[in-house]
Amino acid sequence: MASGGVILSNSFSFYQKRIVMSSRMQEKNGGASIPHVLSVAGSDSGAGAGIQADLKACAARGVYCSTVITSVTAQNTVGVQAVHAVPEDFVAQQLKSVLSDMQVDVVKTGMLPSVGVVKVLLQSLTEFSVRALVVDPVMVSTSGDVLAGPSILSTFREELLPMANIVTPNIKEASALLGGIRLETVADMRNAAELLHALGPRNVLVKGGDLPDSLDAVDIFFNGERFYELRSSRIKTRNTHGTGCTLASCIAAELAKGSPMLTAVRVAKRYVETALEYSKDILIGNGIQGPFDHLLRLKSGSQSFHRKDAFNPSDLFLYAVTDSGMNKKWGRSMVDAVAAAIQGGATIVQLREKDAETRDFLETAKSCLAVCRSHGVPLLINDRVDIALASDADGVHVGQSDMPASVARTLLGPEKIIGVSCKTIEQAQQAWIGGADYIGCGGVYSTNTKANNPTIGLDGLKTVCSASKLPVVAIGGINASNAGTVMEMGLPNLKGVAVVSALFDRENVLAETKKLHALLMEASSSKIQ
Ligand SMILES: Cc1ncc(COP(=O)(O)OP(=O)(O)O)c(N)n1
Ligand SMILES: Cc1nc(C(=O)O)sc1CCOP(=O)(O)O
Ligand SMILES: [Mg+2]
Questions:
Q1: From ligand 1's centre to the CA of 363, what distance in Å?
Q2: Does one domain contain both 178 and 225?
Q3: 108 contacts 40 by C-beta, under 8 angstroms
Q4: Does residue 421 have its Cβ closer than 6 Å to ligand 2?
Q5: For residue 519, is it within any domain?
Q6: Does residue 14 lie within any of the structural domains?
Q7: What are the BP-aspect GO terms (predicted)?
Q8: Which residues of 257-269 are buried (b: 16+ CB within 10 A; e: fewer)?
Q9: Closest by alpha carbon to 328, among 297, 295, 289, 355?
Q10: What CA–CA distances, in Å, run from 189 to 202, 207, 321, 482, 503?
């Protein structure tokens, strides 16, 4: 065992052993190994910190996380109400169960409530080799509750820190580990990092989040040779419960993936910053310090998260597809055009901006989204999955030469809407397999809006509709004079019509949309399914 770290993290012998082991396992089980962090920490019933935060952080970073629970806390956003320590021999049993069976890359520690638990852990680490040990020296919760008594300090200093590849104290913890020295400035933090490093860990990260009077959050990273001042903007939010656990877990996760230490720290900091920014307004619990959202999904005000159904096929009834050329020609902005279409009865909108600069497209998408959201009308983006993601639009529409639906689904997740253009039964089948929500089928009639677009006619539409497992919207040359005919055919799965020029290559978008809407209502009153 190398001193000052569990095992040489870049040791050739480790990698050799790992490769041999994993290829043997792969031969045996036909599987691939994935980076693995073992979290040895306490449970937080409020799930903002502790084991629960570690699991979420590792999941968010794409790393497997196993757990050894050292203590069970009754805890919420107000504070820690009770602590129940897990017996030391049972902590030992959990360690053995995990380490004897699974190839753990990195061990990350959080709440270690007794000297006995630290010793049990150290014993396990001599029996089972891992690549790195990340020590988050949890002593006081963010609410101020004491989670590890002073008796443990000397064990931390003398036995645990010398084994650590990195230790990540906040200012209070760094001060406690160093016998109560005052830490009030960045210079004090540098000094503390150096003193802590002398205790044996290979790297030290002193977190300055609690440093008074600083505009940005400064952390000091010291690797024994160089100091790094890692600065990030201070995010104003009550939702900071669990940031320490998360940061340490994220460092462990990046190390498990093979990153060098400084990279792992930088990535972890950026991840925590992003998560805090993303969840700065969410409200969970009534206490002064709330949890944040590791998976960046609960963003306050995000209508898409709260949407009950990801997609309602009847939204395809009157599908307005924009065209910037047409709107420019008639001297109106995209947002005004979309607002008028919605007012006239459009039930779904697609932004089809073929020539827009990316930045302009994104801004337009955001503005149109605000209008659509305020009316409960879904907004899809034509072709550009990146714009859909960046604007948080409700989904995308892709064609046969765009990104495949299955890839778009992977990128957008299960809740977004995906539409695919199909002219044949095979394409419709493929769209269904790829995870699309609906298909656009055309050109039903010839069109000047899309160049070189083969017309499949009403017969082609009928063929695809009859075979489709997905709802269908008809497109191509549809206007007030033929929409009734299309809908009155009563084709299976046909839910509506998608229209560009009949709405937007007109002077009065509102009036044209109203007219088409009324026609569709009439035609569908007996026919639409
Ligand atoms: C509802 C709807 N159906 C079909 C299309 C056409 O998509 P695609 O084939 O990708 O062609 P472009 O629109 O990208 O030129 C559509 N946009 N919407
Ligand atoms: C964008 C588009 N896709 C089509 C397809 O057949 O897949 S036809 C088309 C253009 C539709 O415009 P208009 O309503 O002005 O005819
Ligand atoms: Mg396309």
A1: 21
A2: yes
A3: yes
A4: yes
A5: yes
A6: no
A7: thiamine biosynthetic process; thiamine diphosphate biosynthetic process
A8: bebebeebbbbbb
A9: 355
A10: 17, 8, 57, 74, 64
Q: Do the Cβ atoms of 336 and 504 come closer than 8 Å?
A: no
Q: Which of 316, 319, 321, 499 to probe ligand 2 with, by most ligand atoms within 8 A of CB?
A: 321
| β-pair partners for 498 | 319, 475
Q: 323 is in which domain, residue-wise?
A: 313-526
- For the record, the structure tokens of 135 come out as 């020590």
Cβ 378 vs Cβ 395: under 8 Å: yes
> Is the CB of residue 350 below 6 angstroms from any atom belonging to ligand 1?
yes
Mind telling me the catalytic residues?
207, 240, 242-245
For residue 163, give the DSSP letter: G
Tally of domains in the chain: 2
**pLDDT digit string, tens, across residues 219-278:** 999 999 999 999 877 888 999 899 999 999 999 999 999 999 999 999 899 899 889 988
Q: Give the strand order in the sheet containing 227-233.
A: 80-85, 64-75, 36-44, 106-109, 132-135, 166-167, 203-207, 216-222, 227-233
The predicted structure's pLDDT at residue 209: 83
* Nearest atom, ligand 1, residue 383 CA: 14
Q: Are 164 and 134 in contact (CB under 8 A)?
A: yes
User: How far is residue 13's CA from residue 34's CA, in Å, rounded to a whole number?
Assistant: 19
Q: Are residues 346 and 260 part of one domain?
A: no
- Neighbour-count burial of 480, counting CB atoms closer than 10 A to its CB (0-12 exposed, 13-18 middle, 19+ buried): middle
pLDDT at 30: 60
Total residue length of the chain: 529
CA–centroid distance, residue 454 to ligand 2 (Å): 10
CA distance linking residue 520 with residue 529, whole number of Å: 13
Q: Are 156 and 173 in contact (CB under 8 A)?
A: no
Distance 304 CA to ligand 1 centre (A): 23
Distance 360 CA to ligand 2 centre (A): 23
The ligand 2 atom nearest the CA atom of 440: 7
Contacts of 448 (CB under 8 A, 6+ apart): 501
**Number of H-type helices and E-type strands within the chain:** 20, 17
398 lines ligand 2 (CB under 6 A): no
